[in-house]
């Protein structure tokens, strides 16, 4: 089980920005694309939502003010898989990033190309606070582990 001890409640960012930073981290690790319909990828993306859910539980147990927890709830709900296990919310966010971060070549979303240069990805990550970088690192490390890819595509 992944620990949320390193996560700071102040690290929450809007869902769109989280997805941008997530994509930037993938690109920084050499990823060129992801396959949202692949069962391992679906499991890995769902596990990222699980990280948010565990952080929310931990923050509540620690007595973190609800005002600081709400952004985490929003991100989790905006990315949460459907009851049938589909990842439409992730697909929507990736499609929303199209033109800047991603390229979806077909309407079935079999492959989402990560369309930013590594230098741009690095720049995007440098704009984050240390706490936000920790959040992205933890989310991506969990994604890599659950997708069976270590940290490589």
UniProtKB/TrEMBL annotation:
This is Uncharacterized protein. It comes from Rhizobium tubonense.
């Amino acid at each position: 089980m992944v620990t949320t001890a390193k996560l700071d409640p102040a690290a929450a960012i809007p869902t769109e920005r989280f997805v941008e930073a997530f994509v930037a981290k993938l690109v920084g690790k050499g990823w060129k694309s992801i396959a949202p319909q692949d069962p391992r990828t679906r499991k890995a993306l769902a596990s990222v939502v699980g990280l948010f859910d565990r952080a929310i539980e931990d923050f509540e147990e620690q007595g973190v003010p609800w005002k600081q927890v709400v952004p985490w709830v929003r991100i989790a709900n905006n990315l949460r898989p459907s009851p049938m296990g589909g990842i439409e919310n992730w697909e929507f966010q990736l499609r929303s990033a199209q033109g800047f971060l991603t390229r979806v070549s077909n309407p079935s979303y079999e492959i989402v190309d990560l369309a930013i240069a590594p230098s741009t990805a690095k720049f995007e990550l440098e704009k984050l606070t240390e706490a936000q970088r920790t959040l992205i690192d933890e989310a991506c490390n969990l994604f890599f582990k659950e997708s069976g890819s270590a940290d490589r595509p």
